C-alpha cells in the first residue's frame, strides 16, 4: 500500500514576486495526514489559511489564484509550488507566505522542487489517494482542446502555439513522476510575449518580471538571459503548470491528458470536471 507523505522538515525561500514586485518569503512546513495542501498568509491578522483545491480558485487570467470565502485569505500564482509538491508526492503541507504571491525565483518550479527534495519526505500513517478516471472527459474552451483519458500513470501530451515566432509551436508527451519532473519539467521557465508586457504593466502586473525569471517571445525570436534550457522549454513549462493546476483536485492524479493550447482557465475547468466526475455528477 502506498502511503501519504509530508515534508520531513521546514524549508524556506525568499525573493521577488512576479506580479507585485514585492519581496516575499515562502516556507514549506510538515502537516498531518489528510490535511492536503494549505496556504497560510502570515502577513495577515490571524494568519488565515486557504486550502489549495479547485473550489477555491477565484482567478485564472495570468496565473492561478485561490481564496478562502471563510477567512478572506487569497494567494496568487500557486501553480509552480503546487507542481513541485504534486511531482514530489507531498500530499500534506502548509505553505506559509508573508505576501499574497510566492517568490517567482528563476521562473521555474526548480527552486521549489529542490527545497522539497532537500528536506526529504516523511511517510505518514494514511493511504495515499489517487484521482482516477471512470470515463473520458473532453471539452473545448475557446482555442483550447482538452481530453482526459483513463490511465495507470500520470501522462501529459501537449501541443502549444502562441503565434509570435515560428519557434513557439512545440509538442511533448511526458509521463510525470518525480524523476521525469526533475529532468524534463522542473527547470522550464515562465514566458510571455513582448506585446503582452505593455498591457500587463498597465494592469499593474509583472512588476517583478525580468530576464532573470522569464523568457520573452518577440518579433520572430525567443529572448532569454542564458541559452534556452530545452529547445522546447515553452511546452515543458506549460506541462509543469498543468501538473500544478491539476493537483487542485486534492489528490495525486493518474490519467492521460491530451492538451492543445491549454492554459490556466482550461486546466482549472478540467480540475473542476474531474471533481464533478468523482462526486458522481
Ligand atoms: Zn507557469
Could you walk me through the main structural features you see in this protein, from its secondary elements to its overall organization?
It contains six helices and 20 strands. By secondary structure, the chain is an alpha+beta fold. The protein has two domains: 126 residues, Ribosomal Protein S5, domain 2 (2-Layer Sandwich); 148 residues, lpxc deacetylase, domain 2 (lpxc deacetylase, domain 1), CATH 3.30.1700. The strands form six sheets. The protein has a five-stranded mixed sheet, with helices on one face. Strands 12-13-20-14-15 form a five-stranded mixed sheet, with helices on one face. A hairpin with a 2-residue loop joins strand 12 and strand 13. Helix 5 packs parallel to helix 6. The radius of gyration is 18 Å and the shape is globular.
Share of helix, binned: 10-25%
Q: Average pLDDT, to the nearest integer? A: 94
Quickly give the structural class: alpha+beta
- Biggest beta sheet attributes: 5 strands, mixed
Total separate domains: 2
Structural shape: globular
CATH superfamily (homologous) name of the largest domain = lpxc deacetylase, domain 2
The portion of residues forming beta strands comes to: 25-35%
Count of DSSP H/I helices: 6
Q: Give the N-terminus to C-terminus distance in angstroms.
A: 29 Å
Determine the CATH topology of the largest domain. lpxc deacetylase, domain 1
- Which parts are unreliable, with pLDDT below 50 for 5 consecutive residues or more? none
CATH architecture of the largest domain: 2-Layer Sandwich
Element-level helix/strand string? EEEEEEEEHEHEEEEEEHEHEEHEEH
Strand runs, count: 20
What strand order characterises the main sheet?
2-3-9-4-5
By CATH reckoning, the class of the largest domain would read: Alpha Beta
Bound molecules: zinc ion
